[in-house]
Every structure is written in structure tokens, then in C-alpha cells.
Amino acid sequence: MKILAVIDSFGVGGAERLLVSMLPGFTSHGISVEAAVLWPPYDLVDELEGLGVKVHRLDISHRWAIPEALGKLNRMLRKEQYDIAWGSLYFGNLYSALVRLFNPKVKVVFSLHSPGYLKSPPVKPWLFTRMKIEQITGSFLADRIVAVSQAVADDYKRSLGWKNIRVVHNGVLVKSFPAPIDQRLRQEIRRKFAVSDDEFLIVVPARYAPEKGHEVLLSAMALLKKEKGWVPKCVATGQGPLREKIKDKAGNLGFKDEFVLTETLAQDELFALMQAAEALVMPSLREPFGLVAVEAMVLGLPAILSNVDGMRELSGERQSALMVEPGDPQSLAEAIWRLYKEEGLRDKLKETARIHALENFDISRTVSEYREIFNNVVK
After folding, report:
1. pTM exceeds 0.70
2. Which range marks the domain in which residue 136 is found?
């Protein structure tokens, strides 16, 4: 079996990171898999190629350059004789589906990584057109549709009328995770971010975007300062359009030193920072899954998560994280304070979260479920 994974771009995101973790795992099962990246950035391409997966950089001039995209993909499919075009993200799915018009023997699998249109109905004509294109291509050209969480699947079922959506949770490559760090290395990592040994450090790895809830966290910190006379040290990492706005709000609240904003960190740097921290906080207003929360669980870092979308599925019945109401600074402030004051709770979350992640989110489980899907599609 030969598979071509098609994705919009290859920056540092959840869908992209998932492919890096997952694609090498198929080769041990006799499945040949390559990747086609439609346009830059190509940040993770070298890492994936270093793991033995061939990556085609297509350099499409514009995301809606349909003839160009189909022409390049069509030539690849005819030359390499792929059995399955496996799309990820909007345009990866779209072009995987459309290229089937010229290669009817090729099977198509869609991967849905974000919520659909239920909570954000299209209000502009071009957004409505985009939605209808996705609805039509998925309904008539996709053989299987897979969602990263039940929350994402339910959204698409209700908004686009798709009936059969398989849920396969994202996974992480557990065997590649670093060993626990010692006190010396912990101190060294914290010094890089101007964090002292006695400060309570929380990490927020997320895009600087409205749905990630950075401003909710800042409001929670303001409540903690007012009500408890205490604030944690926060290091946020990522990229996005709201970075300067968040930075300005932190300064206006008097948190210039307590709330540090950095660029996106390489995975090994982020893991090291999380190992040196006391908690992960994801105050998201929307979150289809939250792969970084799984990574924190594997590392044994207690997590505070918003009770939204796929986050509920992350915690599970074991209550592997503290769940707070989305958009509620008071709820978030109380959870941070509780985690700060109760060392026993931190220890409990470390253990339960790690066990829960190892049992449910190892990448081998994700690969196995996708392998079953691919075999059934080809048959």
C-alpha cells in the first residue's frame, strides 16, 4: 500500500506535529508513505525527512490556485501510483478530494483537526462558499472522514450533515520523550526565562489568538493579585496576531516581569521548559483537541484546561487535569491558587495524567487505528 499525505503547510502546529510523529510508524507495517506540502512554511520538513519520510514541497503560488495544485498533485499520483490521498487541514483535504476526479482509482481520506461551522457560522459570501465546497467534496469524493475528537466530529455532523465520521485521537511519540531532569538542569532552564527557584511557574504554549484565552489568564492573574496578594510567573510561547495586544495588556496590569511572551520554541526546548515548570495552563475558548496538553501529561506536568470541545476528552474519567469554565477568570484564578497551595494535588495529577496519556494517547495506538482505516478503504 502506498499513501500520499497532503497538508497545507508544515509549520509548527498540532496537525503538522502529528504527521511527524505518525508517518514513520507506518513503514514497520509494510505501508509506504510520503508527504506533499502545498506551500511554505516548511519548518518541520527536515525533521520528517530525517526520520526517513520523503516530502514533496509543491510551492503552490496561492492557496486557491486550483489548476496549479491539481496539476502538480496529478503528475505525482500518476507517476508514483499512490493508493490513498490522505488530506489534513482544509486545503489538504480539498486537493486530495479534487485530484481524485482525474485519478478515480485513488481512495481519499479526510482528516479534521478543527471544529467546523456550528459555533462560527459563515457570515460572508466567501466563507459560505468555502463551507459549501468542503461539504460537497467531503460528501462525494471522500471515502473516509476522520476527526481528532468527538467534539470535532459532532460539529461537522451537525453543520455539514456528514453522517459517518470516525474519531481517532491524536497521539504522541512517547518513546522519544526526554528523561526527567535533575535539580541543576531545572534551575538552569528556569534562569533562561528569568524565573527564580521559588516562583510558581506556569507555561502557556499556544498561538496568540483570541480563541486561546491569554486575556482570560491575565484577568485571572489580576484577581489573584487583588484577592491573594500573589501572582504566578507565566511563560507563554507561540506566534500569532495578538502578541502585541497581549503584551500591552500584561504591561498595563503591571505584569511586565510576571508574564513573559516568547516566540514558538523548538519541541525539545518546550519540553525542557515544561519539565522545569509547576503547571500547564490552557485557558482556551475553543480547542479541538490540545496535543500539547497530552505532551504535558506524559511529562508529568499538572494541567489546568478549559472545559471545552476536545479538552473534555483529554481529561477522561480519571480527572487527569483541573477543568475550569471557559472565559471565566474567577474559575481559572481559583484553579491556579488551588494548584499552588496543594502540593498533594499536584503530585496526584502528575501520576494520574501520565497513566491516562500512556494508555490512551501513545502514537502507536493512533497509527494502528489509521492503518485499520486505510486497509478497509483499499479493500
Report:
1. yes
2. 2-171+362-378
